[in-house]
Hints:
five-stranded antiparallel sheet; single chain; rod-shaped
Amino acid sequence: MKRSFHLFVRLKHERGVVFPFTVMCALFMSALFLHAVALYHTEIQFFEEEKKWYEADYLMKQALIYVKQTLASTPENVSSLTQTVSFVHGQATYRATRIESDVWSVTVSCITNAQFRYDVQFQFNASTNNISVWREVY
Length: 138
């Protein structure tokens, strides 16, 4: 009992402990708040980038449907095609070159309305309506 009393008396005579402790806690809380704001800002940037990729992917799917239909109905005497097609979310430009009688080498470039670009290269077999050798170009 005597010992705890001496400790209490010694702490009673200490001066200047509360203010530094308060400043330290305030700085710690400020650091936590700034970290949370930085994480929120990063999430917003990630969401915007993901939205651009989603729109570009949707535009590419529309362009692929159009390209597949066009190449499947192209006459055998045509050796290459180049065309730009406009969609609601942007435009797509494709260039197709015939490799064999039913196989095409195709390059598709999509640009969204937000000026985000997505390019792919692939081979298309018109007789089976299959895409192979898919390669995204960055």
